[in-house]
Amino acid sequence: MSDKNGQAKDSKSAKAKEGTSAADQELKDADQADKRKEDKSAGTCSVEIPELESCSEADLKDLDCPGLYINREINWLEFNSRVLECALDKSAPLLEQFKFLCIFCNNLDEFFMVRVANVFRQYRSGTAPTGPDRMSPARQLADIRRRVMTMTSICQDHWRKKLVHQLAERGLRFVRYADLSEKQRRFLSDYFTNEIYPVLTPQAIDPTHPFPTISNVSLNFLVQLRDKQGNRHFARVRCPGNMSRLIFVPRSKEGKSYAQLGLVSNMRDTDILLLEDMVQEYLSTLFPGYEVVSSGCFRITRNTDVEIEEDEADDLLEAVKDLVDQRRFGDVVRLETAHGMPADLREFLIKKLRLKPFQVYTVRGPMAFADLMPLYGVDRPALKIPGQPGHALQLHSDIFSRLREGDVLLHHPYDSFTTVLDFIKTASTDPAVIAIKQTLYRVGNNSPIVASLVDARRRGKQVTAVVELKARFDEERNITWAEELEAAGVNVVYGLVGMKIHAKLCLVVRREEKGVMRYVHIGTGNYNASTAKIYTDMGLLTCNQDICSDVTDLFNVMTGYAVRNQYRRLLVSPVTIRPGLLELIRQEIATHKEYGNGEIVLKCNQLVDARLIRALYRASQAGVKVRLIIRGICCLRPGLPGISENITVTSIVGRFLEHVRAYWFHANGANLLYIGSADLMPRNLDHRIEVLVPILDEDKKAYIREHVLGWQLDDNQQAWRELPDGSYVKVEPEKGAPLINAQEMLLKEATSKKDDDLG
């Protein structure tokens, strides 16, 4: 028995090695092919798509040809490239450019931790291509590396050669240790001795001290030492992860007093030194009796896409806690080394971490750039886009009376998120409210929503919170909220096995003179007061009987044992969103054949689902005008003759992160419109609880179609248009045409609203 198992294991191992070897060769071939390609000039597009030319007529007819689909990872990099372009915009204030550099780098970190990690796992196991584009893992890795190296080089050059100097001219001066005066160095010496030195832990690397486990995205130094006998040694020093990267070094007594009082946000008479620069300067103090021969800063990115075996977990809360711990030490996906790190140190790391050359990236400029984002919080309004507060709905009576008069549509941040907070807070204190049910996905720190739910429970109301513990990168925060809510007596539910609860729902049950009434808020974004200021989202407040009944039924599905295959008004994944949207597309095709006025406008963050893409291709082939506003990934190819010549794809990347999902169908003048939480990806349609709610009020439909979708389709200031080959070009205004910036127009419109305009 053991011999057979051993033979099977050896056979499996041999196949895996054989697959990896073949993938290695394919990666080399793909990389060489990329190097042979001529770089395309900016703003041009080649419509030659080799995958299309190799497709059979049958595949093209069935819309199964791989050339009809863009690889999702490559298209995501196109999105992050558009984010980078915002940082390169010379007309943008300096701190706005800085902010977009941070966002670009943070996006890239998460991309490697999740998406590249998944591709690399497929590459190592020799897995066949899985997406409709059928691009092999090796080809994806080669293309990813080529594009990432180009983008990061542009990012680093913009910081080193332009932005850092421009910020210095405006008083935000980044310096190296060598630039400091003698007085500043004395100041730093005391600071290092008292604040930093006690936290640092040098770790020897030798046969009795094996190479340490490096935690994900931590900043580290590899140090080469020489003892008095001339022997070589290696050590690792980790920069403290719980201390600010930005050290404000006063240039004068005034600056010192500001620093001591913690008033560095004004940046008066201070220089900025990065923590790692100071640690490197004082490395020798950590190794008395040894000579520091060389050193270099490095950072690794690990696979954080660790899955929970929910079927085997007795306690999901404990399982998620374990996942958070595991994530810190997943497989290494990327190694970043500082420019100038000696080659022997870099090779030492590559060998110890068992990496392939394509996993190694050299960084010119600050490593972990996204961690510098706190600088954006300095009190320098002249270096930022002027802020305009959202319009808060002022009610002429209590909020429940207002909703009985009609639905309220909110569009954040143009409409303040305060209205949503007030709705939940009012429900928590209103004696007539007997129950509140709420979904929580990413609620942020110091959440007023959680405080209201706790207060409601203390007042004797029935409170249920469906907390999604598996919200990626927010698990620790959600664990904290879940435990706090449970301690207050709230009925906390962790959702369904194998499903994420991504729907944004709040149900309020109230006892009134005519009986029990229900009120609902359904949103496109999280119940997070902080992100609501920078994300564009929508929310519907309603007491529509059918919608409230649907939400009640859905909460029973999420909290108990209930199966629902149909809802009255809502589209709910995983049961009805994809079938519902496919049917709406089919109806639009049929209507167009009869009346000739077919039109579809879809706005979401990602379009990946192959079945929906095929349906949109068929709509285009039937002559339906299809206009897509896709912020991020779009795997559909627009503008292909005979396939998608009636489809356009627009991406808006601006001061606010576009997060609204809105799906509009002309329907021969019926103007069917849904908003909600679901993007058009298999994960949203098959593996999450998502909700799309119809907008029934004609005025609110018109606002979304004309002022939101319409203005974004006409935007010629911050819009990009996707070309057939998957690249994007910036939309430029035609000569003499008015300048249209959809986000700024909505802001201007919001400031002119009167108190009751939202109603």
From TrEMBL:
<keyword id="KW-0547">Nucleotide-binding</keyword>
<keyword id="KW-0808">Transferase</keyword>
<dbReference type="InterPro" id="IPR025200">
    <property type="entry name" value="PPK_C_dom2"/>
</dbReference>
<dbReference type="Pfam" id="PF13090">
    <property type="entry name" value="PP_kinase_C"/>
</dbReference>
<dbReference type="InterPro" id="IPR036832">
    <property type="entry name" value="PPK_N_dom_sf"/>
</dbReference>
<feature type="domain" description="Polyphosphate kinase N-terminal">
    <location>
        <begin position="69"/>
        <end position="174"/>
    </location>
</feature>
<dbReference type="GO" id="GO:0008976">
    <property type="term" value="F:polyphosphate kinase activity"/>
</dbReference>
<keyword id="KW-0418">Kinase</keyword>
<feature type="binding site">
    <location>
        <position position="107"/>
    </location>
    <ligand>
        <name>ATP</name>
    </ligand>
</feature>
<feature type="binding site">
    <location>
        <position position="659"/>
    </location>
    <ligand>
        <name>ATP</name>
    </ligand>
</feature>
<feature type="active site" description="Phosphohistidine intermediate">
    <location>
        <position position="502"/>
    </location>
</feature>
<feature type="binding site">
    <location>
        <position position="472"/>
    </location>
    <ligand>
        <name>Mg(2+)</name>
    </ligand>
</feature>
<feature type="binding site">
    <location>
        <position position="631"/>
    </location>
    <ligand>
        <name>ATP</name>
    </ligand>
</feature>
<feature type="compositionally biased region" description="Basic and acidic residues">
    <location>
        <begin position="25"/>
        <end position="41"/>
    </location>
</feature>
<comment type="similarity">
    <text>Belongs to the polyphosphate kinase 1 (PPK1) family.</text>
</comment>
<comment type="function">
    <text>Catalyzes the reversible transfer of the terminal phosphate of ATP to form a long-chain polyphosphate (polyP).</text>
</comment>
<dbReference type="Pfam" id="PF13089">
    <property type="entry name" value="PP_kinase_N"/>
</dbReference>
<dbReference type="GO" id="GO:0009358">
    <property type="term" value="C:polyphosphate kinase complex"/>
</dbReference>
<dbReference type="InterPro" id="IPR036830">
    <property type="entry name" value="PP_kinase_middle_dom_sf"/>
</dbReference>
<feature type="binding site">
    <location>
        <position position="442"/>
    </location>
    <ligand>
        <name>Mg(2+)</name>
    </ligand>
</feature>
<keyword id="KW-0597">Phosphoprotein</keyword>
<dbReference type="Pfam" id="PF02503">
    <property type="entry name" value="PP_kinase"/>
</dbReference>
<keyword id="KW-0479">Metal-binding</keyword>
<dbReference type="InterPro" id="IPR041108">
    <property type="entry name" value="PP_kinase_C_1"/>
</dbReference>
<dbReference type="InterPro" id="IPR025198">
    <property type="entry name" value="PPK_N_dom"/>
</dbReference>
<keyword id="KW-0460">Magnesium</keyword>
<feature type="domain" description="Polyphosphate kinase C-terminal">
    <location>
        <begin position="570"/>
        <end position="742"/>
    </location>
</feature>
<dbReference type="GO" id="GO:0005524">
    <property type="term" value="F:ATP binding"/>
</dbReference>
<dbReference type="InterPro" id="IPR024953">
    <property type="entry name" value="PP_kinase_middle"/>
</dbReference>
<dbReference type="GO" id="GO:0006799">
    <property type="term" value="P:polyphosphate biosynthetic process"/>
</dbReference>
<feature type="compositionally biased region" description="Basic and acidic residues">
    <location>
        <begin position="1"/>
        <end position="18"/>
    </location>
</feature>
<feature type="binding site">
    <location>
        <position position="535"/>
    </location>
    <ligand>
        <name>ATP</name>
    </ligand>
</feature>
<feature type="region of interest" description="Disordered">
    <location>
        <begin position="1"/>
        <end position="42"/>
    </location>
</feature>
<feature type="domain" description="Polyphosphate kinase middle">
    <location>
        <begin position="183"/>
        <end position="374"/>
    </location>
</feature>
<dbReference type="Pfam" id="PF17941">
    <property type="entry name" value="PP_kinase_C_1"/>
</dbReference>
<keyword id="KW-0067">ATP-binding</keyword>
<dbReference type="InterPro" id="IPR003414">
    <property type="entry name" value="PP_kinase"/>
</dbReference>
<dbReference type="GO" id="GO:0046872">
    <property type="term" value="F:metal ion binding"/>
</dbReference>
<feature type="domain" description="Polyphosphate kinase C-terminal">
    <location>
        <begin position="398"/>
        <end position="562"/>
    </location>
</feature>
<protein>
    <recommendedName>
        <fullName>Polyphosphate kinase</fullName>
        <ecNumber>2.7.4.1</ecNumber>
    </recommendedName>
</protein>
